[in-house]
C-alpha cells in the first residue's frame, strides 16, 4: 500500500472530546477540547492545549485551576454547543448542573460520568495554543460507571472526536486485554 504525504497534521486517534471547566469572573464556564491527554502517573497529571483567546483560559489563569469533564456520548449536542459558542457571548453556566470539589474554583459537570479536578502546575506557550499541565487533585466518577471498583469505558461511553472526518464517535469493540494479548 502506498503512503500519501499530508504534511504536518494533528492526526492522532482517538481524541477525547472533553469539557474544560473554569470559573471566569465568578461564573462557571465550559469549552470543548479534544487536545487533552495524560501527562504523568505520579503525580497524576494531564495536559490540555487551549488557544490563549479562549474565554475559559481567562478563568484558568485567574484561579490556577480547571476541570476536565468527560461526557458520555449522550451529551454530544451540549458538548458541540460548548465548542461552537464562546462564554464571552453565551452564558454556559446554566447548561449543566454544576458542582465544586475540593478546590472550589474548578466547576464540575454533574451530567458527565467522570470529572477530574486539576491545579495548574505548568503553562507552556506553543504557537497557536498554550499547553496547560494540571495536577489531578481529585477524580469523581458515577458509581454506575465502575466494574469491580474500576472505571469501565463501556459504562462511561465517552465521546471521542475524529479529526480526519470532523465527527464525534463512540469507542468501538474490545479486541484484546492490554498487557496480555501480546504474550500470545
Give a topology summary:
Blueprint: E1 15-16, E2 18-24, E3 27-33, E4 36-40, E5 45-50, H1 55-63, E6 65-70, H2 76-84, E7 98-100, E8 107-109, E9 114-125, E10 130-141, E11 146-147, E12 150-151, H3 153-156, E13 160-162, E14 167-169
Antiparallel strand pairs: 1-13, 2-3, 2-6, 4-5, 5-10, 6-9, 7-8, 9-10, 11-12, 13-14
Architecture overview:
By secondary structure, the protein is mainly beta. The protein is built from three helices and 14 strands. The chain has helices at 55-63, 76-84, 153-156, and strands at 15-16, 18-24, 27-33, 36-40, 45-50, 65-70, 98-100, 107-109, 114-125, 130-141, 146-147, 150-151, 160-162, 167-169. Strands 3-2-6-9-10-5-4 form a seven-stranded antiparallel beta sheet. A three-stranded antiparallel beta sheet has the order 1-13-14, with no helix packed on it. A hairpin with a 4-residue loop joins strand 4 (36-40) and strand 5. The longest helix has 9 residues, at 55-63.
Please name the defining characteristics of this protein.
single chain; mainly beta; three-stranded antiparallel β-sheet; Pnp Oxidase, Chain A; seven-stranded antiparallel β-sheet; 184 residues
Tell me the strand percentage band: 35-45%
Rg calculated over all Cα atoms:
17 Å
CATH superfamily, please? Electron Transport, Fmn-binding Protein, Chain A
- Determine the CATH topology: Pnp Oxidase, Chain A
Total count of domains:
1
Strand order in the sheet with the most strands: 3-2-6-9-10-5-4
Provide the helix percentage: 10-25%
Outline:
It contains three helices and 14 strands. With 184 residues, it is mainly beta.
Amino acid at each position: 500500500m502506498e503512503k500519501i504525504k499530508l504534511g504536518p497534521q494533528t492526526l492522532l486517534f482517538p481524541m477525547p472530546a472533553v469539557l474544560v471547566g473554569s470559573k471566569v469572573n465568578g461564573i462557571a464556564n465550559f469549552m470543548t477540547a479534544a487536545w487533552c491527554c495524560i501527562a504523568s502517573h505520579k503525580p497524576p497529571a494531564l495536559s490540555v492545549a487551549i488557544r490563549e483567546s479562549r474565554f475559559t483560559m481567562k478563568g484558568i489563569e485567574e484561579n490556577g485551576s480547571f476541570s476536565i469533564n468527560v461526557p458520555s456520548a449522550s451529551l454530544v449536542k451540549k458538548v458541540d454547543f460548548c465548542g461552537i459558542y464562546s462564554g464571552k457571548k453565551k452564558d454556559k453556566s446554566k447548561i449543566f448542573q454544576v458542582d465544586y470539589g475540593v478546590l472550589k474554583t474548578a466547576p464540575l459537570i454533574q451530567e458527565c460520568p467522570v470529572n477530574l479536578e486539576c491545579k495548574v502546575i505548568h503553562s507552556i506557550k506553543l504557537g497557536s495554543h498554550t499547553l496547560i499541565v494540571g495536577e489531578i487533585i481529585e477524580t469523581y466518577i458515577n458509581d454506575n460507571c465502575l466494574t469491580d471498583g474500576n472505571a469501565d469505558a463501556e459504562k462511561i461511553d465517552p465521546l471521542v472526536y475524529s479529526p480526519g472526518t470532523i465527527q464525534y464517535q463512540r469507542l468501538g469493540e474490545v479486541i484484546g486485554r492490554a498487557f496480555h494479548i501480546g504474550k500470545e
